[in-house]
Amino acid sequence: MFFKNARIFGSDFQFHMGAFEVKDGLFGEILPENVPADAIDLEGATVIPGLVEVHSHGNSGADFSDGDYEGLKKMAKFYAQCGVTSFAPASMTLPYDVLEKAFATAKQLHEEAPTGLSRLMGIQMEGPYFSYKKRGAQNADYLKEPDFEGFKKLYEDCGGLVRIVDVAPELPGAAEFVAKASKLCTVSIAHTDSDYDHARAAFDAGATHLTHLYNAMPGINHRNPGVIPAAVETAGVRAEIICDGYHIHPAAVRLAFSMFGGDRMVIISDSGRCAGMPEGTKFELGGQDAWLRDGVAKLADGTIACSASNLYTCMCNAISFGVKEEDAIRAASYNPACAIGADDKIGSIETGKYADFVVCSADYSSKRVFLGGQEI
User: Fold this and answer.
1) Please, which pLDDT band fits residue 136 given cuts at 50, 70 and 90?
2) The whole model's pTM is what?
3) What are the CA-CA distances from residue 315 to residues 10, 122, 332, 359 (Å)?
């Protein structure tokens, strides 16, 4: 099957007018010289890779940490409908036995891979190795110091599906944890009150990621620069950013892309179970009560928590904030695929990768989603 007359976001992260092939659920030829006469005419529509979400807790009333398989399938259906064709759900700061149950559901969905649902390609383990001061909406009752053996057991029990693990680098034993865990997956700095030196030590030990940039970490100070400058000046460190329009001011989003560049930014939604639900909804978040208020989730004390958005909307927001179109798309597709070590299968329109793509209008206001070449 060939598609023609499309504005294709290529593997060089530029747009090209042309055609592409889908064969056995994978991308075949891209920009072929000889296009069959019966190729499907996309009439100049924009075609981008299926988006890759690496930091979302839930949607549609379901949360990954519930450990409910049917709920996880409901989440995967919502993602797919939004143009998010692959995801790595994020857990919360919870006891190991709760995480073990949730991770088991991820392993089941990954292995079964039901048709029409977003592909589960990993897990982000957000917690429990966090700073109390910067815990944000994480449950303080379950915070722990870095524990490699505990992490390794969770990692092995789910078949190595944990692709990102988070840690505050100022905690005792953090550098040693990073050195060991980075041999298994991406290690991210998160929920931290770290100074520059502790952050620098973590990056030197192998950390290559920042979880939700700006949120739950110190701001930049000229005498106490902290985590962010340490990350900016370390080649290869990627930074997530929540582009729901509430967590981060548009100017700070533009600044982040200026500091890190389009090749190192990862757009996320950080959505919770409130995504896709009506305003005023009360819900549970990591053992705490939360409410959807004014478009964003908040705890009872007003602490801002997860978002009620989705990655496709966040990508569109970034473009509307002034981020270059190509950089926003890359940050929502290829870069996150790299962060979870899945860029050989997803994240770009290239021969041999899953034929997961989104056909969009010029302004991204409408879309059609394809998984394995089949429209959902």
Assistant:
1) confident
2) 0.96
3) 17, 21, 6, 15
